[in-house]
């Protein structure tokens, strides 16, 4: 197969930290509140600006609270679990690595008596049809390592008694959130915004706040997870006063991403960019002999973490270790030619390709990397032993 002649001008397809917004440079961070206390007026103003612009772009209801918390999306989910769960029965739905982590925490770490842990294989999605509106629910909107997203929220009751906790880290800013069905939403700056890691966002509905102020879990809660004190919400978390010291250069970086999102047209434009990336890959696969989507159902295919697996009978005949070795060599060819970085599937997922198609990834770069993936696959196959 002939080697492609054109490369993506920005060949970064990592699923976290993700590609920087188009036009990014270090100069964009020159106004950071460096060498200032994070309690200073200047720093708190920056942190509040992150909250306000996130609300504006994501169209978060006015009565939902938005906080900046430590430890990325993981920290935000853990805070919600440790502070809110235990009052009711619990359902956890998972279909990929990070969702399985919440499954493990609920199943093995938190002493919740009535719990239902529902798991699906990579490429599939669980059966939500038996969900009980009296239970609390944990689920990921989009499976980062499997490329599978929820079809809709019809399975969540509008008159539920339980809370819904949604890990939306690889969905927000590229997919429309159904806010009335979501009581807790978490994400990190490093995913669809393409910003720096370490900080998470925690969004609470009035129902979630009511739970915090009327219920105390039976287990001790570490300080870094604590959202309430004596059944009183720690309100400063949701007005720029963070639990621990944030990186102000990271704050400036996420502000740059949020400003970019506003400039390009807001949420509708961000979703359009990402959905177009999925469409480009879908069109390519229609005539491709090497790859297919990992997600079985077209309605569940992610527009951010676009996961592909080889369908070539020769590849399928390899044992698992050789499949892993083969795909590492494919990705090594892509990187050595500076055509595409970090395209290998997640370590626990079926061996394949994962193309991050979030809003900061320009459509032209996705179009240009696809011929390189084909070339790298064919080149590796011809030399593989």
Descriptive account of the structure:
The protein has 385 residues and is an alpha/beta fold. It folds into 2 domains: 237 residues, Type I PLP-dependent aspartate aminotransferase-like (Major domain) (Aspartate Aminotransferase, domain 2), CATH 3.40.640.10; 118 residues, Aspartate Aminotransferase, domain 1, CATH 3.90.1150. The protein has 9 helices and 12 strands. The strands form 3 sheets. The protein has a 7-stranded mixed beta sheet with strand order 1-9-8-7-4-2-3, sandwiched between helices. β2, α3 and β3 form a beta-alpha-beta unit. The mean pLDDT is 97.
Set down the secondary structure blueprint:
Layout (H helix, E strand, L loop, with lengths): L40 H18 L6 E6 L1 H13 L5 E5 L2 H13 L5 E5 L16 E5 L1 E2 L4 E2 L14 E4 L16 E5 L10 E6 L1 H7 L35 H17 L2 H19 L5 E3 L11 E6 L2 H4 L3 H17 L16 E4 L6 H21 L2
Parallel strand pairs: 2-3, 2-4, 4-7, 7-8
Antiparallel strand pairs: 1-9, 5-6, 8-9, 10-11, 11-12
Helix pairs in contact: 1-5, 6-9, 8-9
Order of helices and strands: HEHEHEEEEEEEHHHEEHHEH
Q: What is the rounded distance between the termini?
A: 19 Å
Number of helices: 9
Backbone CA Rg: 21 Å
The chain-level structural class is alpha/beta
Q: Beta-strand percentage?
A: 5-15%
CATH top level assignment of the largest domain:
Alpha Beta
Q: How many beta strands in the DSSP annotation?
A: 12
Relevant CATH superfamily of the largest domain? Type I PLP-dependent aspartate aminotransferase-like (Major domain)
Give the helix level as a range of percent. Answer: 25-40%
What CATH calls the topology of the largest domain is Aspartate Aminotransferase, domain 2
